[in-house]
Design a protein that fits this description.
This protein is mainly α. Helices cover about 65% and strands about 5% of the residues.
């Protein structure tokens, strides 16, 4: 607005990922406000949005950000490994939420645990990993472009959403070739 804020298309990788973190946090806040929704329609919609956003976010970090960070000399690879393990735990919780009926007595608790786990993950990324990545020689502007492009591609293809608005947890959008390069997964793997 009035030229004071950055155009989202110009955000570097760190700023883009932080904006993504903030957007998911807003969805969790909206869920908390909708907890008394008797019909459950709003809650179910918000959980579908949360699961999709987290699935796409995890995918772009795992395909683009984490490999680059792991290869940067200024970044402790243990931080990247821990973040990747945390992603797997998040995917497990997402999968459980997607399978649970809204009437499950642990449904709201599952969303709360997911929210707390995401907040913990974000806090570690933003306070430990991101500062190291900023000090590295990585081209964060180019990486920001790549992250946005991959997110657009995944969103357009419906990665993160399955039938009924559920995310496709565990469906690889890409794979590693024999030489270690990341390539699109075959249609049969999707």
């Amino acid at each position: 607005m009035f030229g004071l804020g950055k155009d989202p298309q110009e955000l570097n990788a760190i700023d883009f990922l932080k904006a993504e973190h903030d957007a998911v946090d807003e969805l969790f806040k909206a869920f908390e406000e909708a907890k008394d929704d008797r019909s459950g329609t709003r809650k179910k919609s918000l959980v579908a949005q949360i699961c999709e956003a987290l699935t796409v976010h995890a995918t772009i970090e795992e395909e683009i950000f984490y490999p680059a960070a792991r290869n940067a000399s200024a970044v402790e690879s243990d931080l990247v490994s821990e973040a990747a393990v945390e992603h797997q735990s998040l995917k497990d919780i997402i999968g459980r939420l997607e399978r649970a009926p809204l009437t499950d007595p642990l449904y709201d608790a599952g969303v709360k645990v997911l929210s707390e786990y995401v907040k913990h993950h974000v806090r570690e990324e933003e306070s430990e990993l991101f500062p190291q990545v900023k000090r590295s020689d990585l081209d964060l502007d180019a990486m920001g472009v790549a992250l946005r492009a991959r997110k657009s591609e995944l969103t357009a293809r419906g990665i993160g959403r399955a039938k009924g608005g559920r995310s496709k947890v565990g469906k690889p959008a890409s794979r590693k070739s024999a030489n270690g390069a990341r390539v699109a997964a075959s249609p049969a793997a999707r």
